[in-house]
């Protein structure tokens, strides 16, 4: 039969999909979201950046997020060879929110999806997109819970499928990332951190803690305090640095923690409360981000690296930018998607890329751990760490590589 007709079909109900759906629905567009899994479902990526709070507000979801009881986050802390430094996100160069949350993604993503539904968005859970036909207006082939296959048609298609990368795979858009392949091993712990017993160790529940391996600056750890005395804990390294490939993941992770004395002491009484997981080769890129028929959001497009917790922020930013373009096109405007969407989105992604690359080659670590930072410069860097990577008034955004190299020289 003739497939049901929508203005916009969205693949995936993660942060980018739910936010895009909400924004489009608010503009009076007929939206449908197809989500493969049932929520709540686990996802990695618990530390948000303040810049994403603006998009959450745009989607009228700020109240719901503020009231959900997530762990407050005010900044990022870094530790290396006993050195500790931190960035308070409220002390930044760019305008905009200076605080955010550290969230268990299962409940956070469900909250966003539920809120979008309560606003009137239709989400079909437990259904997966199997195929796409772009000959005319996009047609999606969908498999439902019962295993039946059906089609829908929409005037525009947004791929918010994250690491599912539905369109990059189906349309052969995948291209290798510029970053080397790294592996993350992670879990959730009941941290049992006793502040009294830890007089000499810095620890702030309101900040993500990024620790650098004492002997190898290519290896780093995240500790993301969550509510309920839990933390997300993980290590990132090129695979050959993670020790015995045959060992079980918990042994690998705990073996790596032992090698970082500060973290080892901090987590002396920690209990693992979730099976350890491994993700490898997660950095990904594409040849095309958007055309007049589809756009890729969030991780379905490009994923860099977890070190600055930029993933959800990029996902939400892309949703916001794409939604505005979709509305314009549906309202009859002719759009150059490269100029209007891909290029402006990539400006911020490329800013993050500059700092990710400089983290791993050591330049940015030198800056972060420099003893006598200039306050104005620190605020500009703080802005980027807070997610304001699209703020062209910040010289560390508009000329990121040149400015970074200048302060690297100063630090030396
Ligand atoms: P997702 O949240 O992945 O959502 C995609 C959805 O699409 C899923 O629910 C999936 O079920 C659905 N889907 C997939 N295929 C189909 C299909 N065929 N049909 C229908 N639905 C489908 N980001 C941060 O901001 N902070 C962090 O601290 C952080 N840490 C990270 C650590 C690691 C090790 C890694 C690898 C990533 C980390 N990230 C972090 C990144 C973060 O996980 C992602 O950027 C974020 O989840 C992207 O959101 P999204 O909406 O694009 O996709």
TrEMBL record:
Annotated InterPro entries? FAD-bd, FAD/NAD-bd_sf, Flavin-dep_Halogenase_NPB
Molecular function as annotated in GO: FAD binding
**Record-linked Pfam families:** FAD_binding_3
User: What range(s) does the FAD-binding domain occupy?
Assistant: 6-333
Q: Which PANTHER family match?
A: FAD-BINDING PROTEIN, SLR1998 PROTEIN
What this protein is called in its record is Flavin-dependent dehydrogenase
Q: Which organism is it from?
A: Shewanella psychrophila
> Taxonomically, what lineage is the organism?
Bacteria, Pseudomonadati, Pseudomonadota, Gammaproteobacteria, Alteromonadales
């Amino acid at each position: 039969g003739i497939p049901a007709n929508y203005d916009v079909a969205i693949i995936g109900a993660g942060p980018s999909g739910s936010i895009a759906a909400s924004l489009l629905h608010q503009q009076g567009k007929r939206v449908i979201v197809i989500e493969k899994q049932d929520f709540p479902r686990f996802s990695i990526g618990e530390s948000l950046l303040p810049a994403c709070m603006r998009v959450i507000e745009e989607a009228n979801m700020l109240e719901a997020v503020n009231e959900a009881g997530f762990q407050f986050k005010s900044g990022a802390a870094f530790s290396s060879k006993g050195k500790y430094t931190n960035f308070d996100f409220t002390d930044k160069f760019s305008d905009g929110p200076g605080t955010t949350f550290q969230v268990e993604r299962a409940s956070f993503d469900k909250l966003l999806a539920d809120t979008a539904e309560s606003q009137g968005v239709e989400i079909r859970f437990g259904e997966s997109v199997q195929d796409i036909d772009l000959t005319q207006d996009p047609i999606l082939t969908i498999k439902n819970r019962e295993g039946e296959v059906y089609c829908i048609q929409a005037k525009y298609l947004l791929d918010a499928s994250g690491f599912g990368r539905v369109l990059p795979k189906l349309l052969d858009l995948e291209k290798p990332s510029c970053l080397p392949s790294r592996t993350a091993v992670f879990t959730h712990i009941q941290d049992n951190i006793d502040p009294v017993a830890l007089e000499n160790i810095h620890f702030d529940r309101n900040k993500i803690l990024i620790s650098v391996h004492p002997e190898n600056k290519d290896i780093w750890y995240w500790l993301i305090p969550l509510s309920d005395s839990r933390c997300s804990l993980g290590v990132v390294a090129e695979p050959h640095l993670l020790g015995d490939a045959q060992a079980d993941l918990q042994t690998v992770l705990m073996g790596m923690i032992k090698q970082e004395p500060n973290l080892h002491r901090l987590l002396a009484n920690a209990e693992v409360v979730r099976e350890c997981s491994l993700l490898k080769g997660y950095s990904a890129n594409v040849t095309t981000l958007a055309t007049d028929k589809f756009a890729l959001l969030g991780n379905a497009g490009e994923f860099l690296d977890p070190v600055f917790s930029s993933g959800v922020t990029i996902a939400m930013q892309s949703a916001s930018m794409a939604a505005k373009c979709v509305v314009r096109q549906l309202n009859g405007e002719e759009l150059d998607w490269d100029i209007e969407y891909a290029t402006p989105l990539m400006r911020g992604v490329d800013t993050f890329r500059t700092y990710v690359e400089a983290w791993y080659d050591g330049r940015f670590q030198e800056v972060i751990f420099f003893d006598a930072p200039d306050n104005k410069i620190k605020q500009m860097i703080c802005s980027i760490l807070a997610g304001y990577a699209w703020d062209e008034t910040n010289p560390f955004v508009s000329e990121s590589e040149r400015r970074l190299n200048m302060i690297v020289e100063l630090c030396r």
